[in-house]
Amino acid sequence: MSTTTTTYAIDPQKINSLPIAGSQTRFPVARIFCVGQNYAEHSREMGHNPDVEPPFFFQKPATAIVADGGKFPYPSISTNVHHEVEFVVAIGKGGKNIEEAEALTHVWGYAVGLDMTRRDLQGIAKKTGRPWELGKAFDNAAPCGAIYPVAQAGHPSSGSITLSVNGETRQNGDLSDMIWKVPGTIAYLSTLFELRAGDLIFTGTPSGVGAVQRGDHLIGAIAGLGEVQTEVV
Predict the structure, then answer these.
(1) What's the domain count of the chain?
(2) Does 216 map to a domain?
(3) 91 touches 200 (CB < 8 A)
(4) By CB distance 3.0 to 4.6 Å, which of 131, 170, 215, 230 could disulfide with 143?
Protein backbone atom coordinates (compact mmCIF):
# COMPACT_ATOMS: atom_id res chain seq x y z
CA MET A 1 0.00 0.00 0.00
CA SER A 2 1.46 3.33 -1.07
CA THR A 3 0.96 6.68 0.59
CA THR A 4 1.00 10.04 -1.15
CA THR A 5 2.67 13.01 0.50
CA THR A 6 1.46 16.41 -0.59
CA THR A 7 4.19 18.83 -1.53
CA TYR A 8 3.81 22.58 -1.89
CA ALA A 9 5.55 25.10 -4.10
CA ILE A 10 6.13 27.30 -1.04
CA ASP A 11 5.94 26.62 2.67
CA PRO A 12 2.32 26.73 3.95
CA GLN A 13 1.49 29.47 6.40
CA LYS A 14 1.27 28.59 10.09
CA ILE A 15 -2.12 27.95 11.68
CA ASN A 16 -3.30 31.04 13.54
CA SER A 17 -4.68 30.12 16.95
CA LEU A 18 -5.70 31.37 20.39
CA PRO A 19 -5.12 29.93 23.86
CA ILE A 20 -7.98 28.17 25.64
CA ALA A 21 -8.59 29.18 29.25
CA GLY A 22 -7.43 26.45 31.64
CA SER A 23 -5.96 24.26 28.90
CA GLN A 24 -2.68 23.64 27.12
CA THR A 25 -4.47 23.10 23.81
CA ARG A 26 -5.24 25.95 21.42
CA PHE A 27 -8.22 27.03 19.33
CA PRO A 28 -7.41 27.22 15.58
CA VAL A 29 -8.83 30.33 13.91
CA ALA A 30 -10.42 29.96 10.48
CA ARG A 31 -12.12 33.25 9.58
CA ILE A 32 -13.08 36.39 11.50
CA PHE A 33 -16.52 37.89 10.91
CA CYS A 34 -17.44 41.22 12.52
CA VAL A 35 -20.89 42.69 13.12
CA GLY A 36 -21.09 46.40 12.39
CA GLN A 37 -22.80 48.83 14.78
CA ASN A 38 -24.50 46.24 16.97
CA TYR A 39 -24.94 48.54 19.99
CA ALA A 40 -27.48 51.35 19.63
CA GLU A 41 -25.38 54.06 21.31
CA HIS A 42 -22.33 53.24 19.22
CA SER A 43 -24.45 53.27 16.07
CA ARG A 44 -25.68 56.73 17.00
CA GLU A 45 -22.18 58.03 17.80
CA MET A 46 -21.17 56.93 14.29
CA GLY A 47 -24.07 58.91 12.81
CA HIS A 48 -26.56 56.10 12.12
CA ASN A 49 -30.06 55.18 13.25
CA PRO A 50 -30.08 51.67 14.76
CA ASP A 51 -33.86 51.50 14.64
CA VAL A 52 -34.08 51.37 10.85
CA GLU A 53 -30.77 49.94 9.62
CA PRO A 54 -30.33 46.15 9.22
CA PRO A 55 -27.20 44.40 10.52
CA PHE A 56 -24.18 44.06 8.29
CA PHE A 57 -20.88 42.19 8.42
CA PHE A 58 -17.27 42.60 7.38
CA GLN A 59 -14.25 40.32 7.74
CA LYS A 60 -10.73 40.39 9.08
CA PRO A 61 -8.12 37.78 8.13
CA ALA A 62 -7.08 35.15 10.66
CA THR A 63 -3.59 36.63 10.40
CA ALA A 64 -4.92 39.74 12.18
CA ILE A 65 -5.07 37.83 15.48
CA VAL A 66 -2.83 39.04 18.31
CA ALA A 67 -2.97 36.88 21.44
CA ASP A 68 -3.42 38.44 24.88
CA GLY A 69 -0.32 40.33 25.95
CA GLY A 70 1.01 40.73 22.42
CA LYS A 71 2.00 44.12 21.03
CA PHE A 72 -0.18 46.14 18.66
CA PRO A 73 2.06 47.93 16.14
CA TYR A 74 0.53 51.27 15.12
CA PRO A 75 -0.43 50.65 11.48
CA SER A 76 0.99 52.51 8.52
CA ILE A 77 -0.89 55.01 6.34
CA SER A 78 -3.09 56.16 9.23
CA THR A 79 -3.10 58.89 11.85
CA ASN A 80 -6.42 58.03 13.53
CA VAL A 81 -6.57 54.47 14.88
CA HIS A 82 -9.45 53.57 17.21
CA HIS A 83 -10.13 50.88 19.81
CA GLU A 84 -13.38 48.85 19.82
CA VAL A 85 -13.84 46.21 22.54
CA GLU A 86 -16.02 43.27 21.49
CA PHE A 87 -17.69 40.06 22.70
CA VAL A 88 -16.25 37.23 20.58
CA VAL A 89 -18.08 34.02 19.67
CA ALA A 90 -15.96 30.97 18.72
CA ILE A 91 -17.72 28.52 16.41
CA GLY A 92 -17.13 24.83 17.11
CA LYS A 93 -19.56 23.26 14.60
CA GLY A 94 -20.16 24.64 11.14
CA GLY A 95 -23.32 24.82 9.10
CA LYS A 96 -25.51 26.96 6.86
CA ASN A 97 -29.09 28.18 7.22
CA ILE A 98 -28.84 27.44 10.94
CA GLU A 99 -32.09 27.81 12.86
CA GLU A 100 -31.94 30.45 15.57
CA ALA A 101 -33.22 27.94 18.14
CA GLU A 102 -30.25 25.66 17.35
CA ALA A 103 -27.60 28.37 16.96
CA LEU A 104 -26.01 28.08 20.40
CA THR A 105 -25.25 24.38 19.80
CA HIS A 106 -22.73 25.59 17.20
CA VAL A 107 -20.80 27.69 19.74
CA TRP A 108 -17.57 26.28 21.21
CA GLY A 109 -16.75 29.19 23.48
CA TYR A 110 -16.42 32.93 24.03
CA ALA A 111 -13.71 35.55 24.48
CA VAL A 112 -13.07 39.29 24.63
CA GLY A 113 -11.44 40.92 21.61
CA LEU A 114 -10.48 44.28 20.13
CA ASP A 115 -11.57 45.42 16.68
CA MET A 116 -8.77 47.89 15.94
CA THR A 117 -9.76 50.33 13.21
CA ARG A 118 -8.00 52.79 10.94
CA ARG A 119 -10.85 55.27 11.35
CA ASP A 120 -9.51 57.74 8.80
CA LEU A 121 -9.22 55.10 6.09
CA GLN A 122 -12.61 53.65 7.02
CA GLY A 123 -14.10 57.15 6.68
CA ILE A 124 -12.65 57.55 3.19
CA ALA A 125 -14.06 54.14 2.21
CA LYS A 126 -17.53 55.14 3.44
CA LYS A 127 -17.49 58.40 1.48
CA THR A 128 -16.32 56.75 -1.74
CA GLY A 129 -18.45 53.61 -1.44
CA ARG A 130 -15.40 51.35 -1.33
CA PRO A 131 -14.85 48.21 0.80
CA TRP A 132 -13.69 48.61 4.39
CA GLU A 133 -10.66 46.29 4.25
CA LEU A 134 -8.05 49.04 4.49
CA GLY A 135 -9.73 50.37 7.61
CA LYS A 136 -10.52 47.06 9.29
CA ALA A 137 -8.55 44.12 7.89
CA PHE A 138 -4.94 45.19 8.37
CA ASP A 139 -2.13 43.33 10.15
CA ASN A 140 -2.60 42.81 13.93
CA ALA A 141 -6.10 44.35 13.80
CA ALA A 142 -7.75 41.71 16.03
CA PRO A 143 -6.16 41.31 19.48
CA CYS A 144 -8.08 38.60 21.35
CA GLY A 145 -8.03 36.99 24.77
CA ALA A 146 -8.23 33.30 25.63
CA ILE A 147 -11.27 31.33 24.52
CA TYR A 148 -13.51 30.26 27.42
CA PRO A 149 -15.31 26.98 26.59
CA VAL A 150 -19.09 26.89 26.90
CA ALA A 151 -18.71 24.24 29.58
CA GLN A 152 -16.91 26.84 31.69
CA ALA A 153 -18.56 30.12 30.67
CA GLY A 154 -22.06 29.07 29.68
CA HIS A 155 -23.75 31.30 27.12
CA PRO A 156 -23.42 34.89 28.44
CA SER A 157 -26.28 37.17 27.44
CA SER A 158 -25.54 39.96 29.91
CA GLY A 159 -22.56 41.28 31.83
CA SER A 160 -20.21 44.25 31.71
CA ILE A 161 -17.98 44.88 28.70
CA THR A 162 -15.32 47.55 29.22
CA LEU A 163 -12.16 48.98 27.77
CA SER A 164 -9.58 51.11 29.54
CA VAL A 165 -6.64 53.03 28.11
CA ASN A 166 -3.79 53.71 30.54
CA GLY A 167 -6.12 52.96 33.44
CA GLU A 168 -8.90 55.31 32.28
CA THR A 169 -12.22 53.70 31.31
CA ARG A 170 -13.18 54.61 27.75
CA GLN A 171 -15.92 52.09 26.97
CA ASN A 172 -18.44 50.72 29.45
CA GLY A 173 -21.47 48.72 28.29
CA ASP A 174 -23.39 45.52 28.84
CA LEU A 175 -23.80 42.48 26.59
CA SER A 176 -27.56 42.79 27.01
CA ASP A 177 -27.38 46.04 24.99
CA MET A 178 -26.56 44.21 21.76
CA ILE A 179 -29.19 44.80 19.08
CA TRP A 180 -28.60 41.42 17.45
CA LYS A 181 -28.08 38.71 20.08
CA VAL A 182 -25.75 35.76 19.52
CA PRO A 183 -28.36 33.21 18.30
CA GLY A 184 -29.85 35.64 15.79
CA THR A 185 -26.42 36.74 14.61
CA ILE A 186 -25.29 33.16 13.97
CA ALA A 187 -28.55 32.27 12.22
CA TYR A 188 -28.46 35.34 9.96
CA LEU A 189 -24.75 35.04 9.17
CA SER A 190 -25.20 31.36 8.23
CA THR A 191 -27.60 32.40 5.46
CA LEU A 192 -24.79 34.46 3.92
CA PHE A 193 -21.86 32.06 4.52
CA GLU A 194 -21.51 28.42 5.43
CA LEU A 195 -19.94 28.72 8.86
CA ARG A 196 -16.92 26.56 9.69
CA ALA A 197 -15.47 25.24 12.90
CA GLY A 198 -12.82 27.73 13.95
CA ASP A 199 -14.66 30.83 12.75
CA LEU A 200 -14.81 33.78 15.14
CA ILE A 201 -17.62 36.33 15.27
CA PHE A 202 -16.80 39.74 16.76
CA THR A 203 -20.25 40.95 17.79
CA GLY A 204 -19.88 44.73 17.81
CA THR A 205 -18.78 47.39 20.28
CA PRO A 206 -20.47 49.67 22.81
CA SER A 207 -20.14 53.45 22.62
CA GLY A 208 -17.01 55.30 23.66
CA VAL A 209 -14.64 54.33 20.84
CA GLY A 210 -11.65 56.61 20.51
CA ALA A 211 -8.13 57.11 19.24
CA VAL A 212 -5.02 55.38 20.55
CA GLN A 213 -1.40 56.51 20.50
CA ARG A 214 1.93 54.74 20.67
CA GLY A 215 2.70 53.83 24.27
CA ASP A 216 -0.96 53.35 25.25
CA HIS A 217 -1.84 50.26 27.30
CA LEU A 218 -5.26 48.82 26.48
CA ILE A 219 -7.28 46.40 28.62
CA GLY A 220 -10.54 44.99 27.32
CA ALA A 221 -12.65 42.95 29.74
CA ILE A 222 -15.95 41.06 29.83
CA ALA A 223 -17.45 39.71 33.04
CA GLY A 224 -16.63 36.02 33.31
CA LEU A 225 -14.40 36.00 30.21
CA GLY A 226 -11.21 37.55 31.48
CA GLU A 227 -9.26 40.25 29.67
CA VAL A 228 -7.28 41.05 26.59
CA GLN A 229 -4.32 43.37 27.06
CA THR A 230 -2.12 44.97 24.45
CA GLU A 231 0.33 47.85 24.18
CA VAL A 232 0.41 50.16 21.18
CA VAL A 233 3.98 50.31 19.83
Answers:
(1) 1
(2) yes
(3) yes
(4) 230
Domain range spanning residue 199? 29-232
Q: Which domain CATH number covers 225? A: 3.90.850.10
